[in-house]
């Protein structure tokens, strides 16, 4: 398997995902990212996933499609997805596509983590 593009860690009741790369553009990388996240949460009954975009400077529109697919998969398992630390220019893509209404987007990891439904 190629070198991981993500840093995935279990935290207090959720899985935290951070990107290693600054640019999420390449189609092959997007497939690998999706597979890494799916593998990390496949055994969870109702996964709670926080994806932190702290290191990301550029993101393709195809990456939005990947995020939507992950969101659907997580929600089908009665899970929750949170996004945090999205660069202002990238956030504009979410606004233009109106995806900011579909995703739970937070300024910080702490805010995103505290927004998960209490179990």
Kindly describe this structure.
With 119 residues, the chain is of the alpha/beta class. The chain has one domain (6-114): Transcription Regulator spoIIAA, CATH 3.30.750. The protein has four helices and seven strands, in the order E-E-E-H-E-E-H-E-H-E-H. The strands form two sheets. Strands 1-2-4-6-7 form a five-stranded mixed sheet. The chain has a two-stranded parallel ribbon with strand order 3-5. Strand 6 (80-84), helix 3 and strand 7 form a beta-alpha-beta unit. Helix 1 (27-41) runs parallel beside helix 2. The termini are far apart.
What's the gist of this structure?
With 119 residues, this protein is an alpha/beta fold.
| CATH secondary-structure class | Alpha Beta
Low-pLDDT sequence parts:
none
Oligomer: single chain
Distance between the termini: 35 Å
Shape: globular
Record field, number of beta strands:
7
Instruction: Please name the CATH architecture.
Output: 2-Layer Sandwich
Largest sheet entry: 5 strands, mixed
Structural class by helix and strand composition: alpha/beta
Q: Sketch the topology as an H/E string, one letter per element.
A: EEEHEEHEHEH
Q: Count of DSSP helices? A: 4
Strand order of the largest sheet: 1-2-4-6-7
CATH T-level fold name: Transcription Regulator spoIIAA
Average pLDDT over all residues: 92
Proportion of strand residues? 15-25%
């Amino acid at each position: 398997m190629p070198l991981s593009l993500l840093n995935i860690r279990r935290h207090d009741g959720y899985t935290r995902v951070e990107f290693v790369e600054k640019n999420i553009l390449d189609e092959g990388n997007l497939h690998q990212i999706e597979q890494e996240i799916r593998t990390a949460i496949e055994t969870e009954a109702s996964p709670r996933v926080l994806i932190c975009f702290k290191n990301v400077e550029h993101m393709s529109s195809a990456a939005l499609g990947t995020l939507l697919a992950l969101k659907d998969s997580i929600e089908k398992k009665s899970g929750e997805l949170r996004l945090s630390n999205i660069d202002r220019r990238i956030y504009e893509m979410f606004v233009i596509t109106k995806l900011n209404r579909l995703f739970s987007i937070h300024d910080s990891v702490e805010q995103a983590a505290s927004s998960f439904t209490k179990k």
